[in-house]
Amino acid sequence: MHNRESMRKPGRRGHGERESEVLSVVDAAPWALTVPEVRAKLAGDLSYNTVHTILGRLVTKGLVERQHSSRGLLYRTAPQAAQLVARKMQALLERGPDRASVLQSFVGCLDPADEHALRALLHEHTHLPHGPESADPRDT
After folding, report:
1. 27 exposed, middle or buried (CB, 10 Å; 0-12, 13-18, 19+)?
2. How many CB atoms lie within 10 A of CB 23?
3. In the 8-state DSSP scheme, what is residue 133?
4. Which of 39, 52, 63, 65 could be joined to 81 by an S-S link, Cβ 3.0–4.6 Å?
5. How far, rounded to the nearest angstrom, does the alpha carbon of residue 10 sit from its chain's CA centroid?
6. Residue 64: strand pairing partners
7. Contact in structure between 77 and 63 (CB atoms under 8 Å)
């Protein structure tokens, strides 16, 4: 039995990978981009229509916003994109058989910059006051 991944032609990317690449380009831009601008920043040779379709999917998912301008349609990362992705990650984590193993595998896949960012966020989170419910009982 073949799964979708193994039936793909060599060198071809799946829809999720393409969406991630397009979202990364849009997210890295300091201003909203047109379809040709997104296409120019992507590695490979995706057609205009393919990039337009992917951007449309990202708009539908709430990860990208589309606006009209004199330059045509412009795309930018939606303000709530990070929260949507975080909720999706949380849902996947909850479906996993062993949360600790899933987290360990996730951390093992991070590139050094992302690992450093995650460590800094965890350090910051553990050193923030979280209100009376998290206060050390020995302080009372």
Report:
1. middle
2. 21
3. G
4. 63
5. 24
6. 77
7. yes
Using CB atoms within 10 A of its CB, is residue 66 exposed (0-12), middle (13-18) or buried (19+)? Answer: middle
Helix locations, the chain, DSSP H: 4-7, 15-28, 35-41, 48-60, 81-95, 99-109, 112-126
Query: Which tokens in the block code for residue 38?
Result: 């997104």
The pLDDT assigned to 64 comes to 96
Q: Is 136 helix (H, G, I), strand (E, B) or coil?
A: coil
For 57-86, the DSSP string reads: HHHHTTSEEEEEETTEEEEEE-TTHHHHHH
Q: Which of 97, 88, 92 is nearest to 61 (CA)?
A: 88
Token readout for 71 is: 């330059």
**With bands split at pLDDT 50, 70 and 90, how would you rate the model's confidence at 57?**
very high
Q: Is 98 left (phi over 0), alpha (psi -120 to 50) or beta?
A: beta
Structure tokens at 121: 């966020």
The length of the chain, given as a count of residues: 140
